[in-house]
Write a structure and sequence with these properties.
Shape: elongated
CATH topology of one domain: Aldehyde Oxidoreductase, domain 3
Oligomer: single chain
Largest sheet: 4 strands, antiparallel
Distance between the termini: 36 Å
Radius of gyration: 17 Å
Mean pLDDT: 95
Structural class: alpha+beta
CATH architecture of one domain: Alpha-Beta Complex
Number of strands: 7
Helix content: 10-25%
Strand order of the largest sheet: 3-6-1-7
Number of helices: 2
CATH superfamily of one domain: Ribosomal protein L16/L10
Order of helices and strands: EEHEEEEHE
Low-confidence stretches: none
């Protein structure tokens, strides 16, 4: 699963996830991409699950590019522990996704196969997605 090798600080504050994506909102590396339609947190497990579903359908032909990385630690206290005594330990990692962000890209795959692969992959994610093609200038 994806997670950073090293971080400056072990724990992070919650923060807010508002607005639309200003970077990573265009298909850059592949010919077709999966775009997020809402803001959300996507866990490393969800990214891995979607990656496996997409790769399984395309039978590992072409190239799958993952454009998101879970770099935010989410902490949790154990069950039935009283309040206080500091922040809990890191449970999992998430990627903060803004509306319009490209999540995955495919290269070297036919359009209809890529659309079906992305449909199967989006079923593993907690947000609505759509498929967009690269704009050639």
């Amino acid at each position: 699963m994806l997670q950073p090798k090293k971080t400056k600080y072990r724990k992070m504050q919650k923060g807010r996830n508002k607005g639309i994506a200003t970077s990573g909102h265009q298909v850059a590396f592949g010919s077709i991409g999966m775009r997020a339609l809402k803001n959300a947190r996507i866990t490393a497990r969800q990214i891995e699950s979607a990656r496996k579903a997409i790769n399984r359908y395309i039978k590992r032909e072409g190239q799958l590019i993952i454009r998101i990385f879970p770099d935010k630690p989410i902490t949790k206290k154990p069950i039935e522990v009283r309040q206080g005594k500091g922040k809990g330990s890191v449970e999992y990692w998430v990627a903060l996704i803004q509306k319009g962000k490209i999540l995955f890209e495919l290269n070297g795959i036919e359009k209809n196969i890529a659309k079906e692969a992305f449909r199967l992959g989006s079923a593993k994610l907690p947000i609505q997605t759509d498929v967009i093609e690269r704009v050639i200038k």
